[in-house]
Specification:
The chain is mainly alpha-helical. The protein has one domain. It contains twelve helices and no strands. One of its GO terms (cellular component) is plasma membrane. One of its GO terms (molecular function) is ABC-type transporter activity.
Length: about 240
Amino acid sequence: MLAIFKKEINQFFSSVTGYVAIILFLLANGLLLFVFPETSLLDTGYANLDPLFDLAPLIYLLLIPAITMRSFADEFKSGTMELLSTRPLSWWQVVTGKFLGSFLIVVISLIPTLVYYIAIRQLSVNPQQLDNGGIIGSYLGLLLLGAVFTAIGIWASSLTANAMISFLIAVFTSFIFYNGFDALSKIPAFSGSADFYLQMAGIKFHYTSISRGVIDSRDIIYFLSLIGLMLYLTKLSLQRKLWQT
């Protein structure tokens, strides 16, 4: 599994695409948080990072599928998937190695955003008033969100040898899980009791809950369950493809 993990990281950073994806993520966050007036932290009058945690999930919808789209798609395209299946590795080790490699890249892309916290702390009149609990909870929420989007991207990449199709499937599926259920719950026909359960089925409900700084075991279980489900579907997809060849 360690070899798969290292291969995934090396594959991402062996081309300019990997660096460009992370640079664009940080550049987009920087422009939205410090340049564009409607979302600028400097114009809110409050020392917090709420705009970052509101905007980052939307940027992740494009960044993470770009990271994962080649994970299995390139293996199928180059014909190395059959070779990989003959190695003394279980399907779970292959899938987990790919997932952890891609997720580490997501974590690496998130680490530089800590500069924003330092900047806000330095600009704040009273740094002690910063909601550190809420910020920690929000970063935990972003990590869990990134892990879910990574699992979805890995699954999408296992469906096709075309990296662009994998990217589009991952973006669409991630968007549905993040915002689709929440939007569906607002339909008048579901008002009453069904709307609440529809919201709970979506990622946004649990991400917002954790971002308040309150770590609820139900939210953690939701994220871990969704990650496990997508990785299991990835395993099934790989097995089905190889059985057909």
